[in-house]
Specification:
The chain is an all-alpha fold. The chain has one domain. The chain has 3 helices and no strands. The longest helix has 30 residues, at 97-126. It is globular.
Length: 127
């Protein structure tokens, strides 16, 4: 059950901006260390903790993960990102950072659009 009280729409917008600004590119200081989508950004409820202070099922992103993958070590890496069902886990295995980032951007843009549309509809019903 999600316990993250942050706004999902704002989280996705910030994550998209982070990605568009090269957030998952290799660091000049530590180029041998790959950055992990979602985990190495403020989107992760455990960002900055040397250990997992919060279980992943408290994260908003868990809602996008199929039930069979919610017990994975990094459940958000099993979100189906496109019609082919590719996940971050699949795309990382292909070692194609450009494809990973473009697929992730498209997924986030689609979720942002859905959330904005849903909120606009709810707001117009309340007025």
């Amino acid at each position: 059950m999600t316990k993250d009280d942050r706004d999902l729409l704002e989280l996705l917008k910030e994550e998209l901006l982070f990605l568009e600004q090269g957030g998952y590119g290799r660091s000049v200081r530590t180029p041998s260390i790959a950055k992990s989508p979602f985990q190495d950004s403020l989107t992760c409820i455990n960002y900055g903790y040397p250990y997992r202070a919060h279980p992943c099922n408290e994260c908003h992103l868990t809602d996008f993960v199929e039930a069979k993958h919610r017990t994975e070590q990094i459940p958000c890496h099993f979100i189906p990102l496109n019609e082919a069902g590719e996940t971050i886990d699949d795309l990382e295995a292909q070692e194609n950072q450009t494809k990973l980032e473009s697929t992730l951007k498209e997924w986030m843009r689609a979720r942002i659009k859905e959330l904005e549309k849903s909120r606009a509809s709810t707001q117009s019903q309340n007025n």
